């Protein structure tokens, strides 16, 4: 009987450790001045819902700046003695401080990972004079000429829209949309959702975040308006959409293998016209033109929306297409792509490692959404995750600070590369206001 009790106790202890989470937060959720001391508190939980603190294990907190440079050699913390644990750090220039907790090490040397979520990772971050962050690198002198040339190629591109009764979405008529690329390398596909109730409606357009993309099984937009609107949601891939998520993932895997880099977003030979976004963005812009001529469109309100890859694309669409009247971009990718030149992490896809040639480095500059932001004068709302290691918060601010029109930033102080429920509500409220003016 004692063995059973012992084993049960051990099992419960392991359960607690496997469920351990940590919250790392600054003393104040605000922006700090360069050189100002920032106080953090790290609280390790065995059960955060019940407020039960972790009572065993050692872990290390590492602190780094916007470029991933370590600040200090790390702080070792014994949860049995110091929980919560308070520490300080500072940054002497505009950017972000990022504090992350390493795995827990038990007395016997076994390591246990924190069970934090991707939305709220085992890390904390603060902004240091983010309004002073500026886009790194030089903008191509022929940026506008290049993109006008790409748009001109698509003036006569074929847009095919066919009813898709097999795709169900309550309250909407759904159609498949296909834009054939003028160079014959494929097509960009997606969905058009038009409210079933007769009337005039605003519109919104976007693409998904990086990954397999849309399929017929799950076509709903990632960011939706709170009011009825026409919605255009397109893939960026050149292969035909799958009917199921499984089929889409299989096609996506095969598609990525066709590129030397092993993925579509870093498959870049330095020839600007060959990069996926040089094809996808004009194609989606062409589809927006189609929607703008629909009898159901109100002729006044058209939003560019998206998250991550979709957020960066929202910037691109607002730059490329005059129909766009507002932008809602969550943790936008493809911003500050030369951030490493300023000692910062570049925005996704973080091209530093793939810039083996000067030719490729120069070509990436044509796709930096921070450059597009300088030319965007419509209202914009942008979210930023303070512990986002995919689309670094400094890269988001580099683009946000360039926006030329009315704008608002929505800080997600404890978030990684995810749109929080609170921030989503703010974005939807922004869209509803802009699309109802």
What do these coordinates show?
- The chain is globular and about 70 Å long.
- It has two domains: 116 residues, Immunoglobulin-like; 292 residues, 3-Layer(aba) Sandwich (Rossmann fold).
- With 437 residues, the protein is an alpha/beta fold.
- The relative contact order is 0.12.
- The N terminus is likely disordered.
- It has nine helices and 20 strands.
- Strand 19, helix 8 and strand 20 form a beta-alpha-beta unit.
- The protein has a nine-stranded mixed beta sheet with strand order 12-13-14-16-15-17-18-19-20, sandwiched between helices.
Q: Which characteristics define this entry?
A:
437 residues; alpha/beta; Immunoglobulin-like; Rossmann fold; 2 domains; 9-stranded mixed β-sheet; 5-stranded mixed β-sheet; disordered N terminus
